[in-house]
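Lecture 7 notes: from sequence to structure.

We start with a single chain of 86 residues. Read the sequence below before looking at the structure.
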Amino acid sequence: MPGSQARSGAHQQTGSHGMSENSGAGAQPNRARFDAEPLREVLGLQGYIRKYKALTMMKNVLASEKYEKELANQRAQLTSNAALWD
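Now the structure, written as tokens:
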């Protein structure tokens, strides 16, 4: 009978794998809690990226409008100077 105890003890050690049977079910709520924080971070970063893109587009529009305004002023000056010389 001592051999049967050794076999059953070895079977208990290899069958356990260091995890309980309920560890998979218990990991789901913890995983959901840990997944919620990165999800909030990603959503927050998406908001910042959208704002950054919108501000960059507005800066580009303002720069092009400023350039067009400067060109219009220079054209107006050239025509007024030409009118003075005529």
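The chain has a mean pLDDT of 76. Keep this in mind for problem set 3.
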